[in-house]
Write a structure and sequence with these properties.
mainly alpha; about 260 residues; rod-shaped; 2 domains; single chain
Length: about 260
């Protein structure tokens, strides 16, 4: 409330003339009196809440996750392709006293086209391979088929199911290859040398000194023969292990 500047009477808000003395009320004073009333009015309503994001911005994280999973799947396919290419590299080297006699690749084992030994004519009449020189090694051939199957399913099956199938195929293929190179070929070489030694032993009743010398030579030759995994074998295993890890990462993703 304000008062009249002439008589001191109380003025109502918005009054233009003093009711007591009739003096005109200053407009600025009336505005000052009305201001507190306006300030005590209802509070301003809060601004409306922001609407949820829609469109490409809202789906950006999902798109990023999908792209990352696709890249992992492509890397896994590449690892299986590298494993197949490593079949043309040497997997096994058969040596005598450090001198390589024959290098056998995964392709040689899978197709049965085993190269003949060199450097020791007559020492090894047949190439020592677990499948023999007459046909392909079944386990290596099966490993190649599994790798190819693990690659094909990633193009024709849903992503997570394809990743799980590829994990199984690559794991079995790696086990077959490792067993063939580290166990079966080594055993075949030892068996071949034992047969060669038996064939070269002179008949009983002959010269005992000659018989003893030949037996010693065969024993020395057998001890000098070594079967060592080559670079192609290790690269194949590494590529298969990488494919297993990558497919496991793909399978662990929630998107399909």
């Amino acid at each position: 409330m304000t008062q009249c500047t002439n008589c001191g009477a109380t003025l109502e808000p918005g009054a233009t003339v003093c009711p007591a003395c009739g003096t005109a009320v200053d407009a600025s004073a009336a505005s000052a009196a009305a201001a507190p009333a306006a300030a005590s009015g209802p509070a301003a309503s809060p601004p409306p809440a922001a609407a949820p994001m829609t469109g490409p911005a809202a789906t950006a994280p999902a798109a990023t996750s999908g792209t990352s999973t696709s890249n992992l799947m492509n890397f896994a396919r590449g690892a299986k392709g590298i494993a197949l290419l490593c079949f043309v590299l040497p997997w096994v080297t058969v040596s005598c006293a450090g001198t390589p006699l024959v290098r056998i690749s995964g392709l040689n084992l899978a197709t049965g086209s085993i190269p003949m030994p060199t450097g020791m004519p007559g020492a090894m009449p047949d190439t020592p391979t677990p499948g023999g020189a007459q046909g392909p090694d079944i386990l290596v051939l099966l490993a190649a088929v599994l790798i190819i199957a693990g690659l094909v399913v990633t193009f024709v099956m849903p992503r997570r199911k394809a990743a799980l199938a590829a994990i199984g195929a690559c794991a079995i293929a790696a086990a077959l290859i490792a067993f063939t190179v580290l166990v079966r070929i080594r055993g075949a070489v030892n068996e071949q040398m034992a047969q060669s030694g038996a064939a070269g032993t002179p008949p009983a009743g002959g010269n005992s000194e000659l018989e003893r010398q030949m037996q010693q030579q065969m024993e020395q030759m057998t001890q000098a023969i070594s079967v060592d995994p080559s670079i192609g074998f290790w690269l194949t295993l590494i590529a298969l292990i990488a494919a297993i890890v990558l497919n496991k990462m793909v399978h662990g993703r929630t998107d399909t």
